[in-house]
Amino acid sequence: MISSGLFAQGIRGKVTDEKNGSALPGVSILIEGTNNGTVTDANGNFELNAAEGSYKVIVSFIGYTSKTVPAVIKAGEMVPLNVSLAESSELLGEIVVTGTRSGGRSRIDSPVPVDIIPVAQITNNVGQVDINQILTFIAPSFQSTRQTISDGSDHIDPAQLRGLGPDQVLVLVNGKRRHQSSLVNVNGTVNRGTVGTDLNAIPATSVERIEILRDGASAQYGSDAIAGVINIILKTRTGLSGNVSYGQNVTSYDKNYVINNGTGKDPSVNVTDGGTTQVGLNYGLKVGEKGFVNITGEYVSREPTNRTGTYTGQLFPAVNGQIADEEILSQRGLTRNNFDMRIGNSKVKGGGVVLNASIPVNTNLEVYAFGGYNNKKGYAAGFYRYPNAVPAIVRTNIFAVYPNGFLPEINSDVTDISVAAGIRGKLGEWKFDLSNTFGKNDFDYEIANSVNYTQAVSTSNFQKTFNAGGNGFMQNTVNLDLGRKFNVLQGLNVAVGAEQRTDKYTITAGEESSYQNYDIASGVASGSQVFAGFFPQNAGTHSRHSVAGYVDLEQDLTRAWVLSAALRFENYSDFGNTLNYKVSTRYKITDGIALRASASSGFRAPSLQQKYYARTNTLFVTQNGQQVPQESGTFTNDSRPAEILGIPKLKQETSQSFTIGTTIQINNAFELTLDAYQIDIDDRIVLTNNFTDAGNATLKAQLAAANATAANFFANAVDTRSRGLEGVLSYNTRFAGNQSFRAVLAGTFIQNRVKKDANDKPIIHASDILVATNQVNTYFNREDLSRFEIASPRNKQNLMINYKAGKFGVMLRAVRFGEVAYWDATIDPTKPDSWPVNTLTGQRETLDQVYNARIVTDIALNYDLTKAINLSVGSNNLFDVYPELQAHSGNISSGRFVYSRRVQQMGFNGRHIFARLNFNL
Asked: Which GO CC terms are listed, alphabetically (predicted)?
């Protein structure tokens, strides 16, 4: 229905490599000062329609120096425009779309720091198959480590930017807000109490590049953009491409270092596990002269890893008052290995499809749509229920089914759906973009190999698998954005817009047996072991809506000096108004040296998950060096137990950010960016620790009604200050014989601190009731402090070298993860006799351990079998590096936790070898 006459004029041409003349697919072609652009096809060809007139055309490609070339378009003509590009040192010449609404601004010209991660190229040389892990090993400011023995967090990896929370970074896809996960990280992980976005629900095969804006941007994009913005750009290329890869861990770790301590026996074991298969296909086709439809399908199967230690504690009930574990093991033909926990990556199987499309209606109008469907099923486990730990009243019936105790499993079914559609173009001199973005995440729990002890009091025919319910989150966002260039000085870009957003959070109750107490008099824990189901009284749907308006100005005062400012007003239905600003500037001292700076305010609305999440779960807490189960209830912030304890009502987090930096480019070979920042955040939201009734009969009754003995809540507890320095240094050169060399050194240095008083004590926003009852330390304690300050790497450096000679290439990468530490809140520093024993030294010490920095080395060798097919083989963590062993007996938990699950740098899976076949037809 679209007339071919609509595409009668514009530019047509081909983009090639300056050295060898080969075609360059996926090159960005953009008319300066507009959003009118396209990309080259598999043969380097492109066509771009435009109205009659004189233009400057920006031609840019990752790894190449951008060019700006003039073009005069005449009525009814397709003007020829052939361009050759020279390889560049890195990515500074690439056009960015994040952090600016003025078309055609390059990375080095941006007034704020923006990293460009060319995912489509990087995946050819690395063994990581998901976005979180790819970014962790290439972007120093980004950190994501897989969790273990942490309920739902075993299946969705929390991620940080600049060491701040997962919910303090805003995720966009093609510039549109991405919905968050429905999962709340409530266990003892680094990001406890936060809600993030599941980046791994977006197949890596569908991604062209990722832009990371390392600067506060709430005034530009809204809530959550305190630490920065991650913008995922989907592929638009045509033709068929894809990859098939397989990798597994081949490693050795000290499983038996506790049980063999001092015996002279080798504590190490050899392990081969974690087999990971990825199959990805991407196909794009042209629609008319300018439009495209791009479809991606991807499947990932990840087998579990296990780095458990050998349990040294009591396994079986005593016989005649004596521990008889070894005799019973011998009689049953078992060893302690039969009682291993599963401490490592969960098993995950899943896949998804992604669509990205744009279809022109005429030269001034196009409709677009993108989105996807992803489903993954995860399989993890909790703490082993050893026979000795099974309550005596149910042992007879339990042992009839589980004679050696049982390892309960937490399995998940996670479905993620997103759809965005819109229309954009020009109305007179104004550009416009009207869109609707919908996203939904459902996280359902199935508990297996388990039992509800209150069922087992009277029968051995008890239920073993439970539907424990789940959570859901939905977000719908309507945006209208308008922009226009004015001929003021060297150019003024004016952008204005409005947004309406609706959020919904759902708790679905589990089946009755997953939460019910069938025998109150028995005194045993009710609900499915490892993860009790959600109660009906906690189930329901909660919603809110917000409206916002913004104005964003970007003025080129001179060719060297740009100044931008933004102001955004938002109104939330549940807590009121907020007004935020941002100003930034960049000044070029010379063509190769520029200074830049910014200042902004920001905010983060409490997530609906934090406002309404409620359930009872079994937590294992350290008491006298042992892991003891405790039935803990998470109650809403406005609940009666919260009122009794005087927990303050939730409100938004607010921030003030400052950044100053420089960019230096020398002879198109050396490039350096260096940026320093400070972010002050007030009223940070935390998940408190577990309050008991403390003799309060009213509170005790409230807890008992929820089958809990303790309660925790979300609250605005502390203020923080984050300071950091981030830098990227790159060098690129070429040699005779079609050889190229590129080296990039990037690093970040982070100092995150909870604000303190003159006596260096944390300033905690606690109620008078908490102070009067001496419960401030339960509200926010020393371990909570460590999660903010030292539990994540405070510095990270990345050196990556790429060398290519003809068909052969090699990638060598070394990533240094800085030290982390753990502070335990249960140890009384005034009572040395109560301190746990250091397993390695035999001495009593406070339960604080520093885990020193580690360097992980990756290598990949690749070879072009044909022009369209490439083979890559390599290894991540080539030298099989692990974090430091746990030293304190309380953290080791009777030998089970060889490595810390509370604080982590790069995980503890060891060497991973892989092979990948890539093709681009």
From this structure: cell outer membrane
Give the span between the Cα atoms of 123 and 872, in whole angstroms. 10
Burial class (CB in 10 A: 0-12, 13-18, 19+), 374: buried
Contact 181, 153 (CB under 8 A): no
Residues 468-516: tens digit of each pLDDT: 999 999 999 999 999 999 999 989 999 999 999 999 999 999 999 999 9
**Amino acid occupying residue 451:** V
Domain boundaries, given as residue ranges, for the chain: 1-87, 88-920
- Structure tokens that stand for 624 in this block: 């006298």
Nearest Cα residue to 222 out of 170, 182, 178? 170
Tell me the fold of 88-920: Maltoporin; Chain A (2.40.170)
SS3 of residue 921 by DSSP: coil
**Residue 888 structure tokens:** 């304190």
Q: Where are the alpha helices (DSSP H) in 71-130?
A: 119-122
Most confidently predicted of 213-217, 383-387, 629-633, 805-809: 383-387
Tell me if domain 1-87 and domain 88-920 are identical in fold. no
Query: Does residue 170 register a pLDDT over 90?
Result: yes
DSSP letters, 188-249, are SSTTTT-----GGGS-GGGEEEEEEE-S--HHHH-TTTTSEEEEEEEP---EEEEEEEEEEE
Exposure string of 666-683, with b = 16+ CB inside 10 Å and e = fewer, is eebebbbbebbbebbbbb
Q: What is the pTM of this model?
A: 0.88
Tokens, residue 813: 């990468």
Task: Count CB atoms within 10 A of the CB of residue 555.
Answer: 19
Of residues 368 and 521, the one with the higher pLDDT is 368
Q: What whole-number distance in Å separates Cα of residue 877 and Cα of residue 884?
A: 15
Q: 724-755: buried (b, 16+ CB within 10 Å) or exposed (e) per residue? A: bebbbbbbbebeeeeebebbbbbbbbbebebe
CATH architecture type of domain 1-87: Sandwich (2.60)
DSSP state of 496: E
What sign does the CA torsion over 507, 509, 515, 520 have?
Answer: positive
Amino acid identity of residue 37, one-letter, is G
Q: With helix as H, strand as E and coil as C, how does 842-902 read? A: CCECCCEEEECCEEEEEEEEEEECCCCEEEEEEEECCCCCCCCCCCEHHHHCCCCECCCCC
CA atoms within 13 A on the CB side of 333: 0
Does residue 178 contact residue 225 with C-beta atoms inside 8 Å? no
DSSP string, 800-831: EEEEEETTEEEEEEEEEEPPEEEE-SS--TT-
The b/e string for 583-606 (b: 16+ C-beta within 10 A; e otherwise) is bbbbbbeeeeebebbbbbbbbbbb
Q: How many CA atoms lie within 13 A of 913 on its CB side?
A: 7
Please list the alpha-helical segments (H only) found in 566-696.
608-612, 640-645
> Which residues have CB under 8 Å from 322's CB, separation 6+?
none
3-state secondary structure of 834: helix
Write the CB contacts of 154 (distance below 8 Å, at least 6 apart in sequence): 146, 147, 148, 346, 378, 380, 410
